[in-house]
Specification:
The protein is an alpha+beta fold. The chain has 4 helices and 9 strands, in the order H-E-E-E-E-H-E-E-H-E-H-E-E. Helices cover 33% and strands 22% of the residues.
């Protein structure tokens, strides 16, 4: 009877571990600094949130292994900054941004421990970009004041009315 209980306990642990490993694209959610965050390669879009105080929040839409719409992510992220004015999201977790290398380096220099992995799985060179979106990302990359808070990026000093996502090649 004792060996049966032991085997039963081992089976329960194996099922728990297998379930944990299936979350967030095959990696355990506890690989990320925040237990509700997802590891790189999660497949979820990046949310871009304009807050009413003029700042912009960049964050992944992945939470606890599931993709959430930016309309749900942005009100939560912008709450401390006067609420969300508007939001949109990338198509998936491969995001085309002008000057990707500089953008990712700035994230690291501004205390974002995971760098670009905080937001998406891969930063791509854009194929096409509207003038407004190109201007917005140029500001974010070169002039915006970036801070990392609770695994999201807050950008101040860039015109949020012109924000947009560029197209992939």
């Amino acid at each position: 009877m004792t060996s049966r209980r032991l085997l039963s306990g081992i089976a329960a642990i194996a099922i728990f571990v297998a379930g944990a490993l299936s979350a967030c694209g095959g990696t355990t959610v506890f690989d990320a600094p925040d237990p509700s965050a997802c590891a790189s390669g999660h497949g979820c879009p990046m949310a871009v949130c304009a807050c009413t105080d003029g700042s912009v929040i960049l964050d992944t839409t992945c939470e606890s292994g599931s993709c959430r719409p930016s309309e749900q992510v942005c009100p939560e992220r912008c709450e401390p900054y006067g609420g969300a004015a508007r939001s949109f999201e990338s198509f998936d977790d491969e995001v085309p941004i002008p000057a990707c290398d500089t953008f990712c380096a700035r994230l690291g220099a501004n205390g974002c421990e995971l760098g670009c992995d905080t937001l998406f799985s891969q930063c791509l060179a854009p194929g096409a970009c509207s003038a407004e979106a190109a201007g917005f990302w140029k500001c974010v990359v070169t002039e915006g004041v970036m801070t990392c808070e609770d695994n999201y990026v807050r950008v101040e000093g860039c015109d949020a009315t012109t924000m947009g996502i560029c197209n992939k090649i």
